[in-house]
Hints:
Blueprint: H1 10-16, E1 34-35, H2 36-39, E2 41-47, E3 55-58, E4 73-77, E5 86-92, E6 106-107, E7 114-121, E8 127-132, E9 142-143, E10 147-148, E11 154-159, E12 167-168, E13 170-177, E14 184-194, E15 203-204, E16 219-220, E17 226-233, E18 246-249, E19 262-263, E20 268-275, E21 278-285, E22 313-317, E23 322-323, E24 327-328
Parallel strand pairs: 15-16, 17-23, 17-24
Antiparallel strand pairs: 1-14, 2-5, 3-4, 4-14, 5-13, 6-12, 7-11, 7-14, 8-9, 8-10, 8-13, 17-20, 18-21, 19-20, 21-22
Amino acid sequence: MKRAAHTLGTLAIAALVSCGDGAGSGTTTATLPLAIDDYFAASGYFGDGATPGAISDSPGCTQRAGSHRGVCHLFTWTPITPATSFAGVYWQYPANNWGTDATPGRTMPQGAKSISFWAWGKSGGEQLQFFAGLQPNDGFKVQTNTILLNTTPTQYTINLAKVTYATVISGFGWAAGAQGTGPIVFSVDDIVWSADAATGSQPGCTDPNAANYNAAATTDDGSCTYNVTFQVDMTGVSVSPSAKMQIRSTFNGFCADCNLLSLGSNNVWTSTLPIPSGSYGYKYAMDATVGGFETVPEACAKDTSVQPADRTRPLTVAKQAQTLPLVKWGACP
């Protein structure tokens, strides 16, 4: 992630004089409800934002929303490469704090259960995610699913009920991916940490053991995946320097080159993949052709009624991370 300097305009500073400085340098003790702009600076530009001028942040919204706390930000992002660009902004304390040195975040009042904010787009349909927390420094990161903005101000909430926090570097943020040509223009207003419970349903993975656990989720959507580490010993097997060692499985449709392994020490190839819970068959391969597949011995095959070339190793993904036993190519554990 790259740094990009950001300075609040004089209008923004003037708007904050009565309730905070908006640049993360105030000394007032924070209490709930806490307007993020009073204590954090929208300074952490990343992606396209690292290029000056790609994102502008104006306090000149044509309307305000909610209780008008903090600053109303009017963002304009002009993608540098429309097909592949991404961009976003962290609200940081102090400004430009990426957690790369010993600078602590702001001590936050306990008891916050949600972050509420209002957002709307110039055209409608703008796709953004909103989040809080900088990993690993803050000890958490929570985020929404992708939200399609309306043209009218709409209130959203991020669930903090399952979050443990103390000092916080990033109190809020947004991120977006490429969405075609032309600038993406939207507004964010009245960003507040609150003791009120989050409203609405936020689907996501609610299992803390999962690789994609989302502490902001209030409803499990069945998307949980669990890290599985594969390892195969290729000692005694001729592997071409150009070979792509891979895992071919029912979980990836036996896709060629989709899940590659990396060479470690002692001719052991490994890969850790997030996989939904369930029962699968898999085998190792060293190129994209059937001739490059290992032949799984009948003694450890998932299905012994098929032809030898079609045998796979059994894999059960339980709801926890696991490391599979080290096996030799074409051999049982």
